[in-house]
């Protein structure tokens, strides 16, 4: 998916917008709130993103791209370790804990994804991003010598989304154990079969 040019100022505004949503929900996302969070003069955000719709769309694309980049890096690391399922699980848990340690990215994604049920533009952004993530996961399963298919990769992505949501709703001190337990069961079921196994 082509990405809009991300100038330093645009990135500053979108990072601030992400923090605004994480702290105040999508209802709190205004141009003025973003300017305040970014420490910029009033009118800065609207100079780049004139409407609320433009701001939401740019933020959705920004969040989706950051998540996709993280998942692609994880996929490269997993592929490098071949068929080591324990290593794949540990690296996946490490990324999830990184996201949970600074949850603005996840919270903003969830807020915007829910809004996508009422906004076709947002829905389209996340549908495209989801399709690309599923392709990355399927490629990773194939390279690791696991049984793979589009449906299997889609199921794994959906299940991992659920694990992240479940972890996000738990106290910070419980998240690590919860992730380890869920990922052991989930990745063992969906990644353990070798290609051609019956």
From TrEMBL:
<protein>
    <submittedName>
        <fullName>DNA-binding transcriptional regulator YbjK</fullName>
    </submittedName>
</protein>
<dbReference type="Pfam" id="PF17940">
    <property type="entry name" value="TetR_C_31"/>
</dbReference>
<dbReference type="InterPro" id="IPR036271">
    <property type="entry name" value="Tet_transcr_reg_TetR-rel_C_sf"/>
</dbReference>
<dbReference type="InterPro" id="IPR001647">
    <property type="entry name" value="HTH_TetR"/>
</dbReference>
<keyword id="KW-0238">DNA-binding</keyword>
<dbReference type="GO" id="GO:0003677">
    <property type="term" value="F:DNA binding"/>
</dbReference>
<feature type="DNA-binding region" description="H-T-H motif">
    <location>
        <begin position="30"/>
        <end position="49"/>
    </location>
</feature>
<feature type="domain" description="HTH tetR-type">
    <location>
        <begin position="7"/>
        <end position="67"/>
    </location>
</feature>
<dbReference type="InterPro" id="IPR041583">
    <property type="entry name" value="TetR_C_31"/>
</dbReference>
<dbReference type="InterPro" id="IPR009057">
    <property type="entry name" value="Homeodomain-like_sf"/>
</dbReference>
């Amino acid at each position: 998916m082509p990405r809009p040019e991300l100038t330093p100022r645009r990135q500053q505004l979108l990072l601030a917008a992400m923090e605004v949503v994480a702290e105040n929900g999508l209802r709190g996302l205004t141009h003025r709130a973003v300017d305040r969070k970014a420490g910029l003069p009033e009118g800065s955000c609207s100079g780049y993103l004139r409407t609320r719709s433009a701001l939401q769309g740019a933020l959705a694309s920004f969040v989706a791209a950051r998540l996709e980049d993280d998942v692609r890096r994880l996929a490269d690391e997993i592929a490098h370790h071949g068929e080591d399922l324990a290593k794949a699980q540990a690296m996946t848990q490490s990324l999830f804990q990184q996201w949970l340690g600074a949850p603005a990215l996840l919270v903003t994604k969830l807020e915007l994804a829910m809004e996508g049920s009422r906004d076709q533009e947002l829905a389209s952004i996340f549908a495209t991003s989801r399709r690309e993530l599923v392709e990355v996961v399927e490629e990773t399963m194939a390279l690791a010598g696991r049984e793979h298919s589009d449906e299997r990769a889609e199921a794994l992505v959906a299940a991992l989304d659920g694990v992240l949501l479940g972890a996000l709703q738990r106290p910070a001190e419980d998240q690590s154990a919860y992730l380890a337990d869920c990922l052991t069961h989930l990745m063992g079921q969906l990644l353990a079969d070798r290609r051609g196994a019956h």
